[in-house]
Design goal:
The complex is a heterodimer of chains A (165) and B (195). Chain A is an all-alpha fold and 165 residues long. Chain A has helices at residues 3-22, 25-42, 52-65, 68-73, 90-103, 107-117, 122-129, 133-164. Chain B is built from 5 helices and no strands. Chain B has helices at 2-13, 21-60, 65-93, 101-142, 147-193. Classes of the chains: A mainly alpha (165), B mainly alpha (195). Chains A and B meet through α1, α2, α3, α4 and α5 of A and α1, α2, α4 and α5 of B. Chain A: Belongs to the sigma-70 factor family. ECF subfamily.
Chain lengths: 165, 195
């Protein structure tokens, strides 16, 4: 596969993974670009020991973890506030809420759930992150549970707000 | 199951325009060039200073051994700095695309710990070599001066070196360490998540 083909095929997937990790559009875009720069640099050395998708997600996960260096340079108080939800449709607000919830999880959980939602096999997630498959399975279950509870809670608040209005 | 589909559906709706691939490649090339320029600049600056010191040795032909040792100490301080700097840059930039995130994090943690230690040692060693080099080199020329001139020359140099050693050196070390230690703490925190 050529770089161009990989780029077209994986851009959105890598962007979503980065977005789940940092939850800031521009930052996620920069991060996704950095991932593809590494893909471009390392592609000639790529050994087909794992699938190319696993390889790209591994690069993306390592790049995400590396963001703590950048994270520290941005003072938390200067981070942009959440988008005003009034401008968002219900669906957009739900998408924004999902990404917000994911980005608030511990770092490894963010990567696990993002890869799961990208439909990467659990064995491959274990391979990418260096955890056991059993651990991944348990963690996915817990994260999904946590997310659905948050969603239910959010829906209740949203409905009661609407009723008051 | 329905919950799962709902999450996946929401997840997949997040899209962004695909930037032009050529733009990415251009960025990759400029990124490489920028780092190369940085390495070349640091090397050129210190190598030129070293070359200048060797030229001074050759031009003034110092007679005393102390002057020669002085110049050698100053040059070696710069060469030491460059050797460590040139070895570290590729390590800090490497992405380890072949290893899993757990191992990657362990390597990053090890690297940062080593970096924290080296920074402290290197900064002190660099200042020590450079200072003793300057003081030794001065001896031959100040020995020909009057006592008051010797006191002034050594007084000013020692003041400048002391300022570097007691004020700038700890400040530089503290700044570097604060940043690296914060990173190490954060890395250790993430490391625990793998257990």
């Amino acid at each position: 596969m050529t770089f161009e083909e990989l780029y077209q095929l994986y851009w959105q997937k890598v962007f979503r993974l980065c977005m789940g990790y940092v939850n800031q559009h521009d930052w996620a875009k920069d991060l996704a670009q950095e991932v593809f720069i590494t893909v471009w640099q390392q592609l000639p050395k790529f050994k087909a020991e794992s699938s190319v998708g696993t390889w790209i997600f591994r690069i993306a996960s390592n790049h995400c973890l590396r963001q703590i260096e950048r994270d520290q340079r941005i003072p938390k108080t200067k981070l942009p506030k959440e988008l005003p939800e009034a401008h968002l449709s219900d669906k957009d607000a739900e998408i924004a809420y999902l990404y917000k919830c994911i980005s608030e999880l511990p770092e490894t959980d963010r990567l696990i759930i993002s890869l799961e939602l990208e439909e990467v096999k659990q064995a491959d997630i274990a391979n990418i992150l260096g955890m056991s498959e059993g651990n991944i399975r348990v963690r996915i279950h817990r994260i999904k549970d946590k997310l659905s509870k948050k969603f239910k809670h959010n829906e209740r608040e949203y409905t009661s707000e609407r009723t008051v209005e | 199951m329905k919950e799962n589909i709902h999450l996946k559906e929401l997840w997949n709706r997040q899209q962004t325009a695909i930037p032009d691939a050529k733009g990415i490649l251009k960025k990759a090339q400029s990124f490489q060039k920028k780092h190369l320029r940085k390495i070349i600049f640091a090397n050129a600056a210190l190598l030129l200073t070293s070359a200048f010191l060797i030229y001074v040795w050759n031009y003034f032909q110092p007679e005393l051994l102390s002057s020669k040792i002085g110049i050698m100490l100053m040059v070696s301080s710069m060469l030491l700095f460059l050797t460590v700097y040139n070895q570290w840059i590729p390590l800090l930039l490497s992405n380890y695309s072949e290893i899993n995130s757990h191992v990657y994090l362990q390597k990053m943690l090890k690297l940062k710990k080593k970096q924290a230690f080296l920074h402290r040692q290197m900064t002190s060693l660099y200042f020590m070599l450079l200072s003793s080099g300057i003081l030794l080199y001065m001896y031959e020329y100040t020995s020909l001066m009057s006592l008051s001139a010797v006191i002034t020359a050594y007084g000013m140099t020692v003041f400048w070196l002391a300022l570097n050693w007691f004020y700038f050196r700890p400040k530089i070390i503290k700044k570097q360490e604060a940043h690296i230690n914060e990173l190490i703490d954060k890395l250790q925190e993430i490391q625990k998540q793998f257990d």
